[in-house]
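#struct-help
A.M.: can someone run this one for me? Single chain, 274 residues.
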Amino acid sequence: MRRRLTASRPLMVGGVLVLLVALTALLAPLLAPQDPYMQDLGARLLGPGEQGHLLGTDQFGRDLLSRLIYGARVSLQAGVVAVAIGAGVGLVLGLCAGYLGGWVDMIIGRLFDIILSFPTILLALAIVAVLGPSMVNMIIAIGITTVPNYGRVLRGAVIAVKSREFMQASEAFGATNTYVITRHALPNVLPPLIVTTSLGIAAAILVEATLSFLGLGGPPPTATWGSVINDGKQYLDIAPGISTWAGMAIVVAVLGFSLFGDGLRDVLDPRLHK
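D.P.: on it. Structure tokens below:
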């Protein structure tokens, strides 16, 4: 396993990018050169390197680099928490649907179909519109939209191991459904769950940036990558760096988690190492 991990180039590259984003988010107060919310109207729309601002300033004279660093904290928090919600609910529903089958599987399957019948962004917009625009409601909305992704993967994984001899032996000895699911089914579906989770964080970051761009994320002046792009869209002709640097930050984060997830899939899939 150690050889597979070190030999996977996408996993290594993605891991470095994910570590970079994570450290930036965790060490934001130490890395940010200035207060990301401090306004200086006399220094608005400065270019990179002017007056000590490495990436320039926005329309309110706020340091752009500081806002991007703090934006990493918001995006990573939203992605991880939203995926935790979606994976947690999807794990329970997927295990129950795959193992119990019958009417339980039918009801859970129809619930997944209803959620998947709406585009992810549209459903998230509707949920945030009902609950009200805030960071917490945005995370809840993203989490709800991701539940079917994990539930369907885990349902298929449980069905694949349900007929195995160790499952049948446990049932023959009188083990309860809860015992079989938690002690036998769950450990065997963790690899696909881990891969789906890592890929889901990348998608959640994109949805968070989209909602923040539309003004449905954290309230102003919260520093998020989506809101920074929104702030800079009307100044693209005179200060294109505002939106460009924020877009590059999103690209780095999403690319890192995507490569990391692809690498994990290659390492954890036993069919690739026969």
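A.M.: thanks! The chain has a mean pLDDT of 85.
D.P.: also worth noting: The chain has one domain: 9-24+57-273.
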